[in-house]
Amino acid sequence: ESRRASRTATPIHGQRSRHLWVTGQYVNPEWKAKADAEPGGSRVSNNPTAVWLDRIAAINGTPNSSSNGAFGVRDHLDEALRQGAGYIQFVIYNLPGRDCSALASNGELGPDELPRYKSEYIDPIAAIQSDSKYRNIRIINVVEIDSLPNLVTNTSGQAGGTVMCDTVKANGAYVNGVGYALAKLGAIGNVYNYIDAGHHGWLGWDSNFGPTADILKTAAVASGSTVNNVHGFITNTANYSALVEPYFKVTDNVNGQTVRQSKWVDWNYYVDELSFAQAFRTKLISVGFNSNIGMLIDTSRNGWGGANRPTGPGATTSVDTYVNGGRIDRRAHAGNWCNQAGAGLGERPRANPATGIDAYVWVKPPGESDGSSSEIPNNEGKGFDRMCDPTYGGNARNGNNPTGALPNAPISGAWFSAQFRELMQNAYPAL
Ligand code: BGC
After folding, report:
1. Does residue 368's CB lie within 6 angstroms of at least one atom of ligand 1?
2. Which of 287, 363, 370, 382 is least enclosed, having the fewest CB within 10 Å?
3. How far is the CA of 120 from the centre of ligand 1 (A)?
């Protein structure tokens, strides 16, 4: 009943409920059907996953696409009504020059197509989400994965900097696009925007941490938006960073050396996602975001359970034996991001799990690929990124380590059965 009462409240963010995550989840029936078709998939298929609006055609549904499905935004919202769901999660993911530092999720809009982003993408989504028919559903929009941090870490002069990131930084496509999305969608009383905030293995160094907070603030007040359009932030989206490393802390020393100087930590100030998300929240408030913002952490694939999970700290021979023996994140390098072998489902989605954290969520739907392991022609704008190729020896951004990617992966967003099965097998908590 309190849900109904809040509908009539003035749409000012400070008045929006912090309790939306306990109002009853929406289960995407299209994802559920794919999960149910896998052996043992019904053990997890009733979890809420986000609906990615990864191209203009996804607004009305893309029946012929390899990823996503026939359901458009309206179909999902109608189904949410039918389910009696209290909340539904969408991902706004179609910026001009999308995924500027990588190739696997480049999108349909070129870097100069901000006008199309506004009129053909954001406006139609806003028109549907503002339909009064849906006013009793809390609509969560996760805004533009992997966008703004790229302007801090992947522009010219930096290891791995790209021309595309330079272009979208110089022409304001990301900052103004995100600002426009926040303003337009945030004007709807039952919409809750969470902006993407990378992950600890990307932004945990102070050279990236503060500058990213600043650019998030710049975007939040661009294109007529204000910080009141921001309900919170999400970390680790579609990534594999461990929620908590139980067997070492960033403050640990071995033989008088800080673990920060181990090869794995590499002077980062954070060794796991929970500590990063909580600290970044504090930083975001200090640069001008509202003090009641909340964080989400994508735990869809950061479980790292299974037979190879360490059961105690590593040997105290050196910082490296200590960290490498004890870390549950088994990647070759924290910069590896594509279809990681050995990963497992993480915490099941749940509300208010820790201080400052609104929820653990499954934004990347488990079983959907991060990118193809070899070139696959497609009409979705998706390229071949060698970080998805298990035979590639890496680049500057992953310390020239092996990619750790699974073989035989389809293009990003397409169903990857072998990965889904492995995620279930290595789930932590176990299924
Ligand atoms: C892809 C999208 C897909 C999303 C969720 C992204 O990497 O580019 O097409 O919808 O992942 O699987």
Report:
1. yes
2. 287
3. 19
- Whether 413 lines ligand 1, by a CB cut-off of 6 Å, is yes
3-state helix, strand, coil in the chain (%, to 5): 35, 10, 55
Report, as residue numbers or ranges, the catalytic residues: 146, 370
* Structure token pair of residue 315: 């040997």
pTM of the model: 0.95
52 lines ligand 1 (CB under 6 A): yes
Going by C-alpha positions, the residue among 18, 31, 48, 27 that lies closest to residue 299 is 48
Q: Whose CA is nearest to atom 12 of ligand 1?
A: 413
Q: Where are the alpha helices (DSSP H) in 10-97?
A: 29-36, 73-83
Instruction: Determine the Cα–Cα distance for residues 413 and 142; give it in Å rounded to an integer.
Output: 16
Q: What is the 3-state secondary structure (H, E, C) of 290-320?
A: CCCCEEEEECCCCCCCCCCCCCCCCCCCCHH
Residue 68 CA, ligand 1 centroid: distance in Å: 8
Instruction: From first to last of the 431 residues of the chain, give the pLDDT tens digit.
Output: 333 333 333 344 445 666 799 889 999 999 999 999 999 999 999 999 999 999 999 999 987 666 678 999 999 999 999 999 999 999 999 999 999 998 988 889 999 999 999 999 999 999 999 999 999 999 999 999 999 999 999 999 888 799 999 999 999 999 999 999 999 999 999 999 999 999 999 999 999 999 999 999 999 999 999 999 999 999 999 999 999 999 999 999 999 999 999 999 999 999 999 999 999 999 999 999 999 999 999 999 999 999 999 999 999 999 999 999 999 999 999 999 999 999 999 999 999 999 999 999 999 999 999 999 999 998 888 899 999 999 999 998 899 999 999 999 999 999 999 999 999 999 999 99
User: Which domains are assigned to the chain?
Assistant: 3-244+271-309+344-369 (3.20.20.40)
